């Protein structure tokens, strides 16, 4: 079979026989088949910006909102300010002493809601947002020593599962 016949079968225009892998094809927004839906393109373990499948998957996840299940169902937050006590000489809001920067801190559970016990997998996270004159500075963390999903292309699937 030539490349044109393969394209006709992949797009569904022409019905083909049973495929060797007999599994569904994952496609991007334009209908191009993904080479590997479970792994992103990497260079030395770092994901590449040229991986259009990864970018489209994350864009679709960021723009969709599932009202049945929120990723952070319960938590608490605090608004205040961060004040330096001495010169740290790195970011602008850390240079000098007695510089106050508005800050918001959020603590939350990550998967279970209030109605579930804490006996299961219980990841808890926090986020700190500094509102600096140079822009926002975010710090986000989970209480997992090793995150169970190392490839960023699997992140939306883990959250939606």
TrEMBL record:
GO CC terms in record: mitochondrion; peroxisome
GO biological process: hydrogen peroxide catabolic process; response to hydrogen peroxide
Domain named Catalase core: residues: 27-161
GO molecular function: catalase activity; heme binding
InterPro entries: Catalase, Catalase_core, Catalase_sf
Residue ranges, annotated region (Disordered): 12-40
Superkingdom of this protein's organism: Eukaryota
Name of this protein: Catalase core domain-containing protein
Native organism: Polytolypa hystricis (strain UAMH7299)
């Amino acid at each position: 079979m030539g490349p044109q016949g393969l394209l006709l079968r992949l797009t569904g225009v022409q019905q083909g026989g049973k495929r060797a892998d007999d599994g569904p094809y994952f496609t991007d927004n334009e209908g191009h088949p993904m080479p590997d839906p479970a792994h992103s393109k990497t260079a030395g373990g770092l994901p590449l910006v040229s991986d259009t499948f990864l970018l489209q998957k994350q864009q679709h996840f960021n723009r969709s909102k599932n009202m049945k299940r929120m990723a952070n169902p319960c938590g608490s937050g605090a608004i205040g300010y961060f004040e330096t006590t001495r010169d740290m000489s790195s970011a602008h809001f850390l240079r000098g002493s007695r510089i106050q920067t508005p800050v918001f801190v959020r603590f939350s559970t990550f998967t279970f809601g209030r109605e579930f016990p804490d006996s299961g997998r219980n990841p808890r996270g926090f986020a700190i947002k500094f509102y600096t004159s140079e822009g926002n500075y975010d710090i986000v963390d989970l209480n997992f020593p090793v995150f169970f999903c190392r490839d960023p292309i699997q992140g939306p699937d883990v959250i939606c599962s």
